[in-house]
Design a protein that fits this description.
Blueprint (H helix, E strand, L loop, with lengths): L14 H6 L14 E3 L5 E3 L56 E3 L2 E3 L9 E8 L21 E3 L7 E7 L5 E8 L7 E5 L1 H7 L6 E8 L2 H12 L49 E8 L2 H11 L3 H4 L1 E7 L2 E9 L2 H9 L10 E4 L1
Parallel strand pairs: 5-9, 6-8
Antiparallel strand pairs: 1-2, 3-4, 5-10, 6-9, 7-8, 7-10, 11-13, 11-14, 12-13
Length: about 350
């Protein structure tokens, strides 16, 4: 966001307008005035108090900050944006109109309409006030304070998990818009998503974008609906997932060759504080041990592998890592062939 975003020229347009590259005629919504009338007929401007936890950014249209034209932060962001939950996932039919091939700046984009896995690394950026209140490619109104994002080819509507490699933070966003149209940028997230990912002030981070398939969404919904297990007295206090509604991971594919388990988890009393990767959650201890054995070849990257019981589940962990960013890098570098989707947790 700090660098000029020529890709933003196309944001907030309907797909039909994208096809013709015409300028959007929607007028951005104006923020409510904070001018208070005086009895004499004059007005006094009351300063707006911004949430002190938000980064201080140059105002949109100020000529500072390197924003694209007049884009930038809102004048009076809502309070407690860090507490905004991830997008509420659900399986929806894809929009016919919003998933047709289209051309922008001479390049043809063909939206994904199958159910194949999709994972992508690159630069993530954010967009804000200039497009706040305008229609997105889905026809929905863009709200910079919700957990949404724009992507050139992911289905509309769909959901993606975005992980900042720089900060280690993860969020789930709803894909309801198109863009960015720039060779080095892979996704534009909302103001709030950028805040939670840790790059609102910097303007961009290196990120991993992973599509949530219908089966992933079903698993998330099932995990949210299931009663939460009560940790047993032998469980350690390591089970705090970074993202809301963490998916209970599938058991490791039986197609991987079995490997003797040579790495043991330290006793709870000796377990170091730090960041860990949750690599799976199993209903049976023997399946968890089998998963640990099959991931043993990746122990050099994943750290010490071990199983910890929490209630009726046996969770497989790797670590510890000195920072959330280190854990996120290890997760991003785990081969997709393992079928594992790690979750960063902190003890």
């Amino acid at each position: 966001m700090r660098a000029p975003f020529d890709t933003f020229a196309m944001r907030g347009l309907s797909l039909t307008v994208l096809l013709t590259l015409a300028a959007c005629g929607t007028t951005p919504q104006k923020p409510a005035s904070n001018n208070v009338p005086l009895p004499s007929g004059g007005k006094v401007k009351v300063p707006v108090r911004q949430d002190p936890t938000l980064p201080v950014l140059p105002a949109a249209g100020s000529g500072r900050g390197g924003y694209y034209k007049d884009d930038g932060p809102g004048d009076n962001p809502p309070a407690n944006l860090r507490d905004v939950p991830d997008a509420e996932v659900r399986n929806e039919a894809y929009s016919t109109r919003s998933n047709r091939p289209y051309v922008v700046f001479g390049k043809t984009y063909t939206p994904i309409t199958d159910n194949e896995p999709f994972k992508q690394k690159g630069t993530g950026t954010w967009y804000g006030k200039k497009f706040h209140g305008q229609r997105t490619s889905s026809g929905e109104i863009y709200d910079m304070y919700k957990m949404t994002a724009a992507h050139p080819t992911l289905p509309i509507p769909s959901y993606a998990r975005v992980t900042s490699i720089d900060s280690g933070e993860q969020v789930i966003v709803r894909i309801n818009d198109r863009g960015p149209f720039h060779a080095t940028r892979v996704i534009d997230v909302s103001y709030t998503a950028a805040l939670k990912l840790g790059f609102l002030g910097k303007g961009s981070h290196q990120v991993v974008v992973e599509r949530l398939l219908p089966a992933d969404i079903d698993a998330i919904l099932a995990a949210r609906a299931a009663p939460k297990p009560v940790p047993s007295v032998v469980a350690i206090s390591i089970d705090t997932p970074v993202e809301t509604g963490a998916v209970v991971q599938p058991e490791v594919s039986s197609q991987m060759p079995p490997v003797d388990a040579t790495v043991a988890m330290p006793a709870p009393a000796a377990l170091a504080s730090g960041f860990y990767l949750q690599l799976g959650a199993y209903s049976r201890a023997d399946n968890a041990e089998s998963g640990r054995s099959r991931l043993a070849p990746y122990a050099a990257a994943l750290g010490t592998l071990g199983v910890v019981q929490a209630g009726n589940l046996f969770r497989l962990y790797g670590g510890p890592f000195s920072s959330r960013a280190d854990a996120a890098r290890a997760a991003a570098n785990l081969p997709e062939s393992t079928g594992i989707k790690p979750i960063v947790i902190q003890r």
